[in-house]
């Protein structure tokens, strides 16, 4: 496995941890309009990059149409369900539920490659999942307190749909990440065409299903710009490199750091307050990640097989 590619993949995780913060700032902007704008921005940015590098035409030739359409659809539907979840349920809790896809990656890899499966990744993933569960518990308690002290009541139905959307988003992204491994021969510049396909999906759905209102505040546009150039722009390129040439199982475990980082961002720049239970949960996640980094020596491996 390429350690550099794994490190690049972690950059994507780091950027994605800011998704909940940025999304919470866009308020009532329709989700498909948000996706359309952000993917369009990412498409323009990547087009300029590969045009300057002289790789634009070759990238188009090297990217299979089937791969382009499936990947673009995955980009779109993952974000559609993710944004819907964040706008119809507590922001932090929905963000954490949407991160159940790392365990899917670890479990699927273990069932496919039992002979080379790294047990430290599995154990580390389970421990990190326990930490994530503790975060969910603490976040649920805080959401209950906020709902009790506020003057408005949230309907149960939209909240349940929000949680369900977060789970669907997780399923889509886990499946895409595993499938992307099969297309390691496709250059990572394919992300440009994936973003264009996702943008076209988004514009079409927005025009048909959502109100055509574009008068948003300056802060909202700043948040959308942040999404387009960070978690949706550079992050996808980094993840493509990581899933194709890096240690996918380790990236799955490292992905559990995103909820902890998400709490940090919302505490620093949002309205979230960190409680002791979340600090403990973050420590558990860190322990799980450290265990995942453990590599048994050749002698230990021989002893295990003797």
TrEMBL record:
Keywords: Membrane, Transmembrane, Transmembrane helix. InterPro entries: EamA_dom, EmrE-like. The chain crosses the membrane at residues 7-26, 32-52, 64-85, 91-110, 122-140, 160-179, 191-209, 221-241, 248-268, 274-294. One of its GO terms (cellular component) is membrane. Residues 9-135, 161-293 form the EamA domain. The keyword Transcription does not apply. It holds the Pfam family EamA. The keyword Transmembrane applies. This is Aromatic amino acid exporter YddG.
């Amino acid at each position: 496995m390429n350690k550099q590619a794994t490190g690049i993949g972690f950059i994507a995780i780091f950027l994605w941890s800011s998704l909940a913060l940025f999304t919470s700032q866009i308020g009532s902007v329709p989700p498909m309009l948000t996706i359309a704008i952000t993917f369009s921005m990412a498409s323009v940015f990547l087009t300029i990059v590969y045009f300057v590098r002289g790789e634009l035409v070759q990238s188009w030739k090297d990217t299979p149409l089937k791969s382009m359409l499936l990947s673009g659809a995955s980009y779109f539907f993952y974000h559609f369900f993710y944004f819907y979840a964040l706008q119809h349920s507590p922001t932090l809790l929905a963000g954490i539920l949407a991160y159940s896809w790392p365990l899917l990656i670890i479990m699927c890899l273990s069932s496919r490659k039992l002979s080379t499966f790294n047990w430290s990744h599995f154990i580390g993933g389970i421990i990190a999942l326990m930490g994530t569960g503790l975060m969910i518990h603490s976040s649920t308690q805080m959401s209950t307190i906020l709902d009790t002290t506020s003057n408005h009541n949230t309907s149960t139905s939209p909240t349940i749909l929000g949680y369900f959307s977060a789970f669907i988003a997780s399923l889509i992204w886990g499946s895409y990440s595993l499938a992307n491994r099969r297309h390691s021969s496709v250059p990572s510049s394919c992300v440009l065409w994936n973003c264009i396909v996702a943008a076209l999906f988004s514009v079409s759905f927005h025009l048909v299903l959502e109100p055509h209102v574009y008068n948003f505040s300056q802060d909202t546009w700043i948040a959308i710009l942040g999404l387009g150039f960070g978690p949706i722009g550079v992050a996808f390129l980094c993840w493509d490199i990581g899933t194709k040439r890096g240690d996918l199982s380790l990236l799955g475990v490292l992905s559990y750091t995103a909820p902890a980082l998400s709490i940090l961002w919302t505490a620093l720049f949002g309205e979230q307050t960190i409680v002791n239970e979340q600090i403990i949960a973050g420590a558990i996640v860190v322990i799980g990640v450290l265990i995942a980094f453990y590599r048994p020596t050749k002698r230990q491996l021989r002893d295990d097989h003797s």
